[in-house]
Amino acid sequence: MRPDFENIALAEVHDAVWGLLAEGVAQAASPFHTPALATSSRHGTDLRTVVLRHADPASRTVSCHTDWRSPKRRHVQHDPRVAWLIYDRQRKLQVRLRGRASLHHLDDRARERWSESTTRSRVCYSAPLAPGTPVREPAAAGTDPDGGWQRFTVLFCRLQRIDFLYLSAGRHRRAILTWEQERWDAGWVAP
Question: Is the pTM of this model over 0.90?
Answer without folding.
Answer: yes
